[in-house]
Model the fold of this input.
Amino acid sequence: MTQPTLQARFSRHRWQWVIFGFIALGILFIPVPAGVSTPIERTFRIEARRFEYSPAILKVNPGDLVTLELVATDVVHGLSVDGYRLETTADPGQVARITFVANREGIFRFHCTVTCGSLHPFMTGKLQVGGNTYLLRSILLVGLALTAAAWKFRK
Done:
């Protein structure tokens, strides 16, 4: 006698769980519209010294024309941007330039391509093209989970 009651309860509330599922999928996969901005020219002067770039985090908007000026301050350093197939090398005191259009959204690592010492593998930086939506999506999913839990355990 208990089995039909549980089955009836499940089928009665199943559509609400389906709705929660569709909302969760929407939060995960629907693109968040970025603020409308006109692409501009951006120039970053990146100083490379043993095991660090300064600045190490670069933020640009999609469509921007980006110029990276690499300046090596101590030894020969290189710069390669993952996802864009860009690479350059700078001798000490010299400036090497890379210019490209930031046409891919996301977070891309850049790293040194010339072995400059024992901590060379840790000489990295980050190029962020567009906004970072991971935090917003995480907050929305936690809110949805709390709402579903409150609905499930309401009396």
User: Anything to note?
Assistant: The first strand starts at residue 41 and ends at 49. DSSP finds two helices and nine strands in the chain. Residues 2-29 form the longest helix (28 residues). The chain has a mean pLDDT of 85.
